[in-house]
Amino acid sequence: MVRALYGFPAPFPGFQHMHSFSSHARGLTRRRFVTSLGAGACLIALPQQAKAEGHASSGCLPAMPSNTWDLKVSRTHVSLDGKSMHAPSIGGTVPGPILRWKQGETVTLNVRNTLDETTSIHWHGIRVPSEMDGVPGLSFAGIPPGETFTYRFRLHQSGTYWYHSHSNMQEAMGLYGAIVIDPIRPDPNACDRDYVVFLGEWTDVMPHDIVSNLKMQDDYYVFRQRTAASFPKEAREAGSAMAALKNRLAWSRMNMAATDIADVSGAIYTYTLNGHAPDMNWNGLFRPGERVRLRFINGATMTLFDVRIPGLEMLVVQADGNDVEPVPVDEFRIGVAETYDVIVQPKEDRAYTIFAQSEDRTGFARGTLAPRAGMSGLIPPMDPRPVRTMVDMGMGDMKPGESMDHMSMSGMDMKGMDMGHMGHMAMPKMEVDDPGPPPLNVENQNVAMMPMDRTGSPGDGLENNGRRVLNYKQLRATRPGADPRPPSREIILHLTGNMERYIWGFNGRKFSESGPIKLKKGERVRFTLINDTMMEHPIHLHGLWSELENGQGDYRPYKHTIVSQPGSRMSYLVTADVPGMWAYHCHLLYHMDLGMFRTVLVS
Amino acid sequence: MKAALATALFLVGAGAAHAEDSPQYHAADAPVPGAVTHLGNIMPVMMDQSSWFHGILEQAEGRYAPSGTDFRWDGEVWYGTDYDRLWIKSEGTLEKGRLSDGQQDILYSRAISTYWNLQGGVRVDLDDGPTRTWGAFGIQGLALYQFEFQATGYVSDRGRFGARVEGSYDFLLTNRLILQPQAEFNLYTKSDPSRLAGAGLSDVDAGLRLRYELWRKFAPYVGVTYSGHLTQARRIARDQGEKPGSVRFSLGIRSWF
């Protein structure tokens, strides 16, 4: 009915089910695998309102992995929290269907485009030949309207991943979903229950309009700025009115705002969990005492989430699809495009709230682990919003208002620190691509004078909050890295931007003014990121693993997306083992599209 | 003093050492024209090359006086990319059915630094007075402490010079209630009595406006404005029986798209 109203293209021939995907491999129809879910993996009864058309993901995995999938990309009318959009999506839902695959198998994905514009699907974090990576312009020319593209590749890996469009901001409007790949070997993290928890945002404002507004006014969506009204509180916190005033003037002098946490906020976003608005209360069922695996995926456009389940310890067992030594935490920050698998064991017969507040604390996504459907747990109040400090500006531990003398002196300390950092590698002379400090120009607003190693920090707003919060240093792979070679080359990249003009890039240049980063096939390279901006940037390298150098030696974690904290310096190793053109970018989509994007050319 | 000297020596030394090292900087992503052929000629990201179109009416206000209410507008529209834009600025005052102070600029704007744009083009004084045409050249941008600033120099078709300087600042009382002091000054090298312009500092138009952003793009405001002639222009105005200046209570709407 709704479909007809909104003039949807008719379902293509052979379309039999409510959802336009089906899995052929085992002759399993949608209906059958829904009814076969009783197998214990995922008993769930959706609350009534969650059945609304367009946005319902149970978070339940398909009962069995499949090798062949027909995926139809179409426009769907989705209405959530009073915000409607004619959203591009797969199978008529946001998020799209959970794709369950099996490691070692070859999957075939027939993606049929029924939109009136080109589309594409990128398999985020999956190691594929570059022509299967789904980035228009780099992997292929995209999927034109009315055509079907068949992706086919062998799965070398297992774990939790996701997929999304890489065309025309379709991802920001809902074209995304989860991927779960079963390992060949017995899964050490197998649990009684297994849910995907897909975090995202929903808005009825078109991506182009959001960017246009930010171009005109960079704090368009920020309504938590420092004002005359908030001054007394700041003065109390700073100890005196003078200190608070000095701090304000220091920021004002730089034409920056300490309250710049997220570019797009809860002013227009409804934060979602498996496509559910907070009041729709997604439910994941458990029996007290069961072990429950939650596969967190941040599929948002612009939002980092801080996740906790009050009353439950979370055991982090996987990051970006790769198993890590279990880390017990109370909370973790998940950058855009990252995934974390956690295991919880709720023992009491009560509801537990999954609480994922946006980094800027303008809203939260929420769901409930419940022994019976429809239950609600207590929703905790949101934490105070973080305020950026001089550390985020790359000024180290300098207090605002301190003089340049101090700065050059501590600059020396930093050099010493840096030497120590490099020293322990003691390796033959390495080729270094060092662009030098970025220029202050139209496209760059700030230079981090003393970038710090922040891998031990859980992130702005989470430090010393009284909870055990995950940090990057705690991630330790369960097996040593596959490539023991030291890097033969270091590539230093500065993350830069001009908030005022809303331009983003690397090394003070946006995408259209830059060349490709060339890697020789088989080359072992260290990427070093220096973040000169005052925001987090989740940096995603397609096609190749990013092995985070977090002090875990040979057991460094393999990631596909690494959050670079403001004012920080960090590095990771890359083996360029698959040739082709790969995308390399910030996964805050508006940063990506406004220039924080590079082509990595492996040949 | 000693400490300062030591610091200075240290800095010089550090500078020299720096020069000796003379690091060879090389960016891995240095621009190499034609290094990549994009499949299907599709750029993987598009918006960094986009053009944008915006306009703002900073002032659209009635200025109340017992003798009659004036209407004043001041705004601009621009279209273009991050670096190159076309600007049209417009302002004017309608009083008793007569249009005055009508300055219209068409400018090419080029981004030259983090916060500043260079602007050049043509200004036409278009109102009920005699029409004047000027070549225009100036800067526009954000000064330190988030102070909005524009300064434009003009040369007329009759070989005269002028300048316009304007600035404003937003004080956030709350996130939606904003107090904005604003001022605009015009200067000329020679008088032009038929346009009530005097040599030197000729006129000022200033206001203190309190706006409430109902939403970002629509904010009604109340304000106190002053519009007046200064120095020589003040005498010219008096001689012609015009009021040299007046403080007004003003009501208006700031809006943009």
Automatic annotation (TrEMBL), chain B:
Q: Which domain of life is it from?
A: Bacteria
State whether keyword Signal applies.
Answer: yes
Q: Which residues are the signal sequence here?
A: 1-19
Keywords (alphabetical) are:
Signal
SUPFAM superfamilies (alphabetical)? Autotransporter
Pfam families for this protein: CopB
Q: Does the keyword Signal apply?
A: yes
Q: What protein does this entry describe?
A: Copper resistance protein CopB
Q: What is the lineage of its organism?
A: Bacteria, Pseudomonadati, Pseudomonadota, Alphaproteobacteria, Acetobacterales
